[in-house]
What does this fold into?
Amino acid sequence: MKQRMFATVFAAGAFFSAAVGGSALAAGTGSTNTFSPAQRAEIVEILRQALKEDPTILTDAIESLKTKAEQQKQANALSAVNSHWSELASAPIYAVRGNPYGKVSVIEFYDPRCSYCRAMAPQIDQFLAKHPDIRFVEKIVPVLGSSSVLDTRAIIAASAQGKYDVMRRALMQDTTRPTEDRILEVAKANGLDADRLKADMSSPTTVTAITTNLNQGHDIGLDGTPTFLFGRAVVAPGALTLDQMEGFLAQAKKI
It folds into this structure.
């Protein structure tokens, strides 16, 4: 019943769309058939009756549209990733984890104040421990406001002292509202020269690194953090489970 009813609605919808436009092309002829007011009313009634008898038709249609929209979004994102892959895959040595010579690159765009990014941090550690052949590239992007900008500047500036990862972990675990004083306090507690860090937070190198990451995010239509690129195979926005990461990695290894 449902298949037959859906076919009826689909056909009626097609005719109605044509009717609203004033005409419909006759297949293979190039001529047009116009619908009378009575015919249009009949088409509307068919649609109305079908939806009354089986409301799930509308739900199915909406879900189908959503699925197609997501597929198109993924296709557009992958196209952008392929167009900008050389820039995306490149990164300063401090932002590369795992195997720097790994055949598959997994890229994460993250914001240090993002709760989902923070929650996934231990999981990423597990993932990399399980896959020592993976080249994992971090792209830190401050997209959540001034607090994110402050943390990002500090994390990148810490790279000048060989402490990028130390500062990244410390600030992403810190629940205190970030201020410059708090950041310098965290830096001292983790063996950094606080005065040097403060100066490096405003250096051209730090500013350029942040700008580069933000521009790359813009190039691929980044709309949230975390977002992962599994090679050129998958663009995966949002927090992921380990099983999802394994599946996406398998896809990346096929390319």
User: Anything to note?
Assistant: Residues 88 and 187 are 29 Å apart (CA to CA). The chain has a mean pLDDT of 86.
